[in-house]
Write a structure and sequence with these properties.
alpha+beta; Fructose-1,6-Bisphosphatase, Chain A, domain 1; D-Maltodextrin-Binding Protein, domain 2; 2 domains; eight-stranded mixed beta sheet; five-stranded mixed beta sheet; about 30% strand; globular; binds D-MYO-inositol-1-phosphate; binds calcium ion
Length: about 260
Amino acid sequence: MNAHFVAGLAVEAGTILERRPGARVVRVKWGTDIVTEADEASERFLRQEILRHYPDHRIVGEEFGSSEAEAAWEWFLDPLDGTVNFSRGNSYFAVSIALAHHGVAQVGAVYRPLTGELFLAERGRGATLNGEPLRVSDAGQVGEGIFILDWGRQTSRRDTFGVLGAIFYAANKIRSFGSAALDLCSVAAGQLEGFIHPGLAPWDFAAGQLILEEAGGTVTALEGGPRTIEAGSVAATNGHVHAEVLGLLRPGAAPSR
Ligand code: IPD
Ligand code: CA
Ligand code: CA
């Protein structure tokens, strides 16, 4: 599979988003969980291009779902990751595309239109940002690290805080930006040490996970099991702090300050 093709799709879909600032909200999924015209326009474009070139591939997209038919090759599309930011004029949003073979991501592309940053990885071939190799940070302790904690819906936040609380107290700095795909890429770029999320869909993390792993990082579920391409929790780090993070995520881990 040609990573160049996947990257090109991400950039073209990003250009659609760039042209639609302040796009109209077409649906409200839940609370502030919205869908804009731009989400749908981007996914429509991606589906059309993929099916034109690969009619026998399966597409799993956030806005228009997936077909029942099984296929060896599957595309996981987040046509606009960070919709809430986008709808408020905040530039922290991206297009995220992963291509998997028998359930294992082979190519991942995350494109941030307003900065022109293209994160790209191919399994076994490393990860790049606009063609330059990406590498995670060297930090070896949670206490010296910057962590992105993301919180999910209001109804589940009390439980989430119970799980993430120990990291909240132990980390040097805490951030929360609103695009899981870009968050994973920031860890891959060595800007931060980790990203923790209680529950994501495969289109949110599949591309970012591959990019981070190819940059030397580690991604598991919060309980430490492998992060497969099914929906679930995500603990993503530079690798050096992963064991410490999983220890802090264990139920009952005491706040350290
Ligand atoms: C959301 C973002 C956000 C995460 C949410 C996702 P969307 O994706 O990645 O950071 O906290 O769980 O749903 O809805 O903007 O594509
Ligand atoms: Ca998303
Ligand atoms: Ca989305």
